[in-house]
Design a protein that fits this description.
17 helices, DUF318, cell membrane, membrane
């Protein structure tokens, strides 16, 4: 059966252009658009997911719990600042950061510190700043404001998460059991090759996470295909409605944080600077694809609470910025 499928694959690869599929099947244009959206999201995300699971595997193999705890301040609020600093130097997007943070929490990092890294890394890293700087060359204040608002939002989200959840364990049962298995496995293989162990962890995590990436990309593609952007723009002209609509659009589109600034720049003139900033800050912190990826590792109630907290904080900070700086 496998050989038969391989033969079909290579035959289509070599001769697919000569087969008149368009005359054999009538495919609705909306399904073709959905297919394009789905494939583009998956192909855009996979390199960053691979990067994320590889870094996660390196953390699992080489980082000891004692080393991690030594560099985290005992005061839960002071710990927020080094967490933002760590996020600022991680050149990863929202897809890659989820397995990394999961692994750090398994290693003993406090929940709220890990969440600060999760929301700050995809937006505060240097690559995102440069892409935003380039996309908004006619208004460079957008790039600086994006970094400043993301910094404030990250600290506030971490503080609120600590207030509501403290250091209670929020990883789901499956992830907890996997952590126990891996811990035992590590103790039994101290003399085994670390490189082979790293690739083993990365491979297991990629295939475990891959199905959630595909599901998230499919949902994001469906929404992008069948939800009219004109409808969102019609209701997003007000000072209060604009940021909310752009945040909703950011959640739906599920763009990679390294590229979302170029999409946001296309809305300049249609939405206010505050609304565009809400789009640029909110999207990298949480989106449809990211939410489904988080459900793979965290408890459902925590993911829902995280989504609500990030949404409220970003919206409130956006209105504060509009009131005092615009």
């Amino acid at each position: 059966m496998i050989y038969f499928l391989l033969v079909i694959f290579f035959a289509l690869f070599l001769f697919g252009d000569t087969i008149p599929f368009e005359n054999m099947f009538s495919i609705p244009p909306s399904l073709l658009d959905l297919n394009t959206m789905f494939i583009s999201i998956v192909l855009e995300a996979i390199p960053f997911v691979l990067l994320g699971v590889f870094i996660s595997a390196v953390i699992q193999t080489f980082l000891k719990e004692e080393t991690l705890k030594k560099y985290i301040p005992a005061n839960p609020y002071l710990a927020l600042f080094p967490a933002v600093a760590i996020g600022a130097v991680f050149p990863v997007c929202e897809c890659a950061i989820v397995p990394i943070v999961r692994r750090l929490i398994q290693k003993g990092m406090p929940l709220h510190v890990g969440i600060v890294i999760l929301v700050s890394a995809p937006v505060l890293n240097p690559i995102v700043f440069l892409s935003t700087f380039y996309a908004f060359q006619t208004d460079l204040s957008i790039a600086w404001a994006r970094m400043g608002l993301a910094f404030i939002v990250s600290l506030l989200v971490g503080a609120v998460i600590y207030q509501f959840f403290g250091n209670r364990w929020q990883l789901n049962k499956k992830t907890t059991e996997a952590a126990k298995h891996q811990h035992t496995h590590d103790n039994d293989n101290d003399r085994s090759g670390k490189i082979a162990e790293t690739f083993q962890h990365a491979s297991d995590e990629f295939f475990d996470m891959g199905k959630f990436l595909i599901i998230g990309a499919l949902f994001a593609g469906i929404v992008q295909t069948y939800v009219a952007r004109e409808t969102l723009m019609d209701i997003g002209n007000g000072a209060l409605a604009g940021p909310a609509v752009m945040m909703g659009l950011a959640y739906i589109l599920s763009l990679c944080s390294e590229a979302d600034a170029f999409v946001a720049s296309s809305f300049k003139g249609l939405f206010s600077s505050t609304s565009i900033l809400a789009f640029l800050v909110y999207g990298p912190m949480t989106d449809l694809k990211n939410t489904i990826l988080m459900l793979a590792y965290f408890k459902k109630r925590f993911v829902l609470a995280f989504l609500v907290i990030v949404t409220v904080v970003v919206y409130a900070v956006s209105l504060w910025y509009d009131a005092f700086f615009i």
